[in-house]
Amino acid sequence: MRRLSRFMLPAIISIVCAYAQAQTVRIGNQGDALSMDPHSLNETLQLSVTGNVYEPLVGRNKDLSLRPLLASSWKQTTPLIWRFELRKDVKFHDGTPFTPEDVIFTFNRAAGDGSDLKSFVSDVKEVRKVGESTIEIETKVPFPILPESISQLYIMSKKWCEENKAVTPVDRRKGIENTASFKGNGTGPFRLRERQVSVKTVFTRNPTYWGQIEGNVAEVVYTPISNDATRVAALLSGQVDVMEPVPVQDIARVNSSGTAKVLQGPELRTIFLGMDQKRDELPNSSVKGRNPLKDKRVRQAIYQAIDIDAIKRVVMRGASNPTALMVGPGVNGFDSALNERLPYDVEAAKKLLAEAGYPSGFELTMNCSNDRYVSDSEICQAVAANLSRVNVKVNLVAESKGTYFPKVLKRDTSFYILGWVPATYDAHNTLNALVHCPDGKGAGIFNLGSYCNEAVDQLIVKVQSETNKAKRDAMIKEAFKLHASDVGHIPLHQQLLAWGVSNKVELTQFADNFMPFRYITVK
């Protein structure tokens, strides 16, 4: 790894040094945003990066509370209707005025073919203009958390999209690209100046931004550095100013360097495993004519064969919190009383497999990213090693997220890893996107194994429209209890954030792992 680092570092240095100047901040990340189209992928890194160029109607403060952005105010006028007053005198980066028509266009675009944000707008019946700077959003049923649900729905210019043939989103599942993949035209505090996929992306401060930019950064050079050792070396040598994630084994080293430090904190993201529960036969499996993952006993055996404490201790070096739920602390609907994992028990797992008809185990393929989550590939390797103890042979396919996400999003997977931060910081988002049976309209869009339970689906629908908090929380609890009983997914842990930051840089670390450039200051 050290040898690889020595070979790769000069290439990284050549990229970032050309942009090293006053008020330039150089950011290194283990992966790249896969597209500049803000509606093409519902993934934290991509939404974080594009969220510096584009803006939603309603955004987030540093404490993750709601804040007005392109909407100056909003209110619920009836159980089904929300009225938003739009900010006046706002312009897109090309000088085009921001209008209600752009909002209407954006909602339609996000709901259309190719969009990965359908779940954000699946319960919106209509968006209409009711004044020169006023729009109404009518929902299909009462939706008390509508403002939260659209806090990552970035507004695009109708005129620009039409002129650049980008009316429909980039479809990552089909590999379809358009102008919005490589260019940007938002209303945000930074403009996209240069885009070289998997090499570097350069942003410049928007001199005509309508709002306040707290930091002093004039230019941001974003460089993907997939190799952990190279990324650490770039930070310690001063070739990048900010990088994430810091590998857990290097946290102490960075903190003792004297030139940089590690910002650590709990993240809202839950890492989990999903299993194909739809196909009648798993591809590339030793079992023919049936799908062992359809059997709850098999799913539970896999769960109980995973030594989560060893993963925390050895793989994550203590930088994780094992979980039994699909949401963690800080998310509305998290219930500590339910957060008790099934015990790690190899013999119990073997017994369950035998009862299910697999006394000698079986073979299947597991898909895993190797540059998206903290130690993601190592986690998958540990899971594969654990399962070998119960005679389940895992053929592990680990790959860059650039090829991993398009594959699993097409449900071309039997067994996979995924991480999720609910965009609303509310359990309904997780339940609707990950647990609801896929309906082709937005619900269950990231339920890639097609877990289905009609009783759970009914609860999710009720949770969405319930305004009584006690009743709503009780329904969330019941939905999670049913899902856990089914072993619909296998929750693993909440990972801890670890950002490496030069001593000459000040920034704000968000619990959702977003990194707004507007808060970065170079001393």
Write the SSE topology.
Layout lengths: L1 H16 L6 E6 L14 H7 L7 E3 L5 E3 L2 E8 L2 E6 L13 H12 L6 H4 L2 E8 L2 E6 L6 H4 L8 H6 L26 E7 L3 E6 L13 E6 L3 H9 L5 E3 L6 H5 L4 E16 L20 H10 L2 H8 L4 E3 L23 H10 L6 E8 L6 H13 L3 E8 L1 H9 L5 E6 L6 H9 L18 H12 L3 H18 L3 E13 L2 E2 L14 E2 L1
Parallel strand pairs: 1-10, 1-11, 14-15
Antiparallel strand pairs: 2-3, 4-5, 5-7, 6-7, 8-9, 9-10, 11-17, 12-16, 12-17, 13-17, 18-19
Characterization of this structure:
The chain has helices spanning 2-17, 44-50, 100-111, 118-121, 146-149, 158-163, 228-236, 251-255, 296-305, 308-315, 346-355, 376-388, 401-409, 427-435, 454-465, 469-486, and strands at residues 24-29, 58-60, 66-68, 71-78, 81-86, 124-131, 134-139, 190-196, 200-205, 219-224, 242-244, 260-275, 320-322, 362-369, 392-399, 415-420, 490-502, 505-506, 521-522. The protein has 523 residues and is α+β, with helices and mostly antiparallel strands. The strands form five sheets. Strands 1, 8, 9, 10, 11, 12, 13, 16 and 17 form a nine-stranded mixed beta sheet that branches. A hairpin with a 5-residue loop joins strand 2 and strand 3. Helix 9 runs antiparallel to helix 11 and helix 14 runs parallel beside helix 16 (469-486). The protein is globular and about 70 Å long. The two termini are 33 Å apart.
